[in-house]
Write a structure and sequence with these properties.
Layout: H1 2-20, H2 30-50, H3 56-79, H4 85-104
Length: 110
Amino acid sequence: MMAFVYLALAIVAEVIATSALKATEGFTRLWPSLLVVVGYVVAFYMLSLVLRTMPVGIAYAIWAGLGIVLVAVVGLVVYGQRPDLPAVIGIGLIVAGVVTIQLFSSISTH
């Protein structure tokens, strides 16, 4: 159970860091740059805690899938970047893949 809490924190930290990358303007702005660095440090530390009890493939699939969806939402809300239909379909397929792995793969129990 704690692995999923750590994973959620890792994903949120990574999404914040990734979303702030645009605001760094090539790491020329201090505060957004610090947010990126701190966000990634927190994200990878939390992910390291997750990997104590969860297989790396499963953890990374969940991390990547949810991260993509959340970054796309941030891109839409904060930066006005509207995904087109192929992007939405692709994101949906990624989410379907993560759900399939979590529900049906035996690797998630090892």
